[in-house]
């Protein structure tokens, strides 16, 4: 698909990706993130990557961003928007 975009004389293609880990039909990104210990403390059910931890950032770069970059995506926009739901007593 991305090759066909570039074939239509598009110089750069970007992708909006969520920075929240979840599983899909063909991936186990959330399960992999939990096993790697890169989810923010007390946010295990929400799948929020702990971007305050350099090792978690490196993991997300390798397992998230570089997966789409290897397909030809030149830039990404990350966002989690209004999808975050925290338990009442969660503190950051």
List the helices and strands and how they pair.
Layout: H1 2-7, E1 14-18, H2 29-36, H3 54-69, E2 75-79
Parallel strand pairs: 1-2
What does the model show?
- With 92 residues, the chain is an alpha+beta fold.
- The chain has one domain (2-82).
- The chain is 33% helix and 11% strand.
- The chain is built from three helices and two strands.
- The protein has helices spanning 2-7, 29-36, 54-69, and strands at 14-18, 75-79.
- Strands 1-2 form a two-stranded parallel ribbon.
- The protein is elongated.
- The N and C termini lie far apart (40 Å).
- The mean pLDDT is 82.
Summarize the structure.
By secondary structure, the protein is of the alpha+beta class. Helix content is 33%, strand content 11%.
The poorly predicted ranges are none
The share of residues in extended strands comes to 5-15%
Query: What is the count of DSSP helices, taking H or I runs of 4+ residues?
Result: 3
Which structural class is indicated by helix and strand composition? Answer: alpha+beta
Succession of helices and strands? HEHHE
What characteristic shape results from the CA principal axes?
elongated
Mean pLDDT: 82
Distance between the termini: 40 Å
Widest sheet: strand order? 1-2
Can you count the beta strands? 2
Largest sheet: 2 strands, parallel
Q: What integer value in Å does the Rg equal?
A: 15 Å
**Helix content, binned percent:** 25-40%
> How many domain units?
1
